[in-house]
Each structure stands twice: as structure tokens, then as C-alpha cells.
Amino acid sequence: MHKRETMNIVLITVAILLVIVINAWIMSSREPDILDIPITEQADEPVPDFIDIENVQEKKEAFFNYLRPEVEKQNEYLLSLRHYIQTLQRQISLGETLTEDDQERVVWLVNEYKVDEDAEIDDQLQTLLRRVDILPVSLVLAQAANESAWGTSRFARKGYNFFGLWCFRKGCGFVPARRTEGADHEVAKFPNLSKATYTYMRNINRHNAYKELRTIRSTLRSNQLPVTGVALAEGLMNYSERGIAYVEELQAMIRYNRDYM
């Protein structure tokens, strides 16, 4: 190979490396955006071995202490989005034009929360306000305990899936041992606890199956009443094939474990 060709290869390689470094610097130095999904410090840590905790009270405390900070962080994020949406509503009501950045964020939110993209922006924001909202910590913790057998299921231990979430792309998760013949779903696997919790909460906030939960929450807010786990559990009839029995079990778990949650 000629020296000139070698030099050209070196220059090209250096140029590529410079582009990578500059892009990395730009990404690391930019201000966080309102849409940046929070990843907590503990998110990537291995799931504690709850199986080894024999004392029931200690296991409950360890389980709730592990998950609670994550749920609270995701709720803070949802509240920040909610306040942002309300700010956009006020701007539009005053006849102000949204900036390009705000328009792009609305497009992202509309897609993320499955809102009609052809609807008027007023209607989009109103629908978003019903969907982008907190889930009571007690409800999330009760579901996590119920769906993961208190963190001992292999889906929770190996894939941070405490919520029994499914996925439908081959290789996206774990093939359940008792999957119905002909079914193609898998139990989702997540890279960290933050992504798993965010996905679960987004699922509750946007899926048609949980419209009743969102209606209950909206009604409570309209009447300035507390948004509680026991109340919102009524809207989870479709989360399990057990229906009302599942709802009643969640409500009983919330009441019984109130001191730990």
C-alpha cells in the first residue's frame, strides 16, 4: 500500500473519531430536555435476592425499599410532563404560538401516549392531561409484589420485569413455561429497573384496557379528592384474567401492607 493511501486512511479514521468525540461531548453537555426519561442511580444494579430473605416482614421491607424510589422518581417525571402540558394549554388559551421545540415535543407525546395525531391540538393536550399522570405508589408496589411473587420470579430477577409485561417480537424477552399453544408472546426483558417501571406506567396510562382507571383518576382530580391506590385498582379489571378477584386482591394487599408502603 502506498504511503499516500495509508495517510488518507489515517486521516479518515481520525476524522471519524473526532466526529464521535464531538457528538459525545455535545450530548453530555446539553441541558436535559423535559422529555428525557429518568434513569435512577440504582436502576442498573442487580435485583436483590429476595428469595434468601426468610423473615416475611424483612422481605416486605426490602422489596418495597428497593422499588419505592424508582416509582417515586417516575411519578415526579410524570408530574413534570403534566405541568408542561398545562403550560402549553395556558399559552394556547392566550393566543400564543407554540415554538418549534414545543411542537416537536407535542408530536412526541402524542405518539408516546397514543393520542389521535389528527385531532386539534386543544383536544390532544386535553387527552394527554388525562393520560400523563401519576400512579399511586401503593398501587404500583402492590402490583409489583403480586406479579413478581415478591421479586422472586425469574422475570423480575433476570429482566427487571416486576409487572408481568408481555412483548411480541421474537427474542424480546423470556418464553413463559406455560405459554398457550399457538401463542407467540414473551415476557418482556428490560435493561434496567427504570426502563421497566417507565414502560409499565406508560402502559397503564395509554392502553385502552385501562381507560376506566384513567377515568377514575380524572374524576378524583376534578373533585379535588386524593388519588389512592385502592380507588384506582378498580380500573385494573383487565390486567388479569382473574378480573374482580385480582382487583380485590390488590386492594387487600394495599390495605394490609399500608405500614410498609
Total number of domains: 1
Strand coverage percent: under 5%
Q: Separation of termini?
A: 69 Å
> How many whole angstroms does the radius of gyration measure?
22 Å
CATH architecture: Orthogonal Bundle
What value does the average pLDDT take? 88
**Major sheet details:** 3 strands, antiparallel
Strand tally: 3
Domain Mannosyl-glycoprotein endo-beta-N-acetylglucosamidase-like: 116-247
Keywords: Membrane, Transmembrane, Transmembrane helix
Transmembrane segments: 7-27
GO molecular function, one term: amidase activity
List the keywords.
single chain; mainly alpha; MGlyc_endo_b_GlcNAc-like_dom; 3-stranded antiparallel β-sheet; globular; Lysozyme; 58% helix; 261 residues
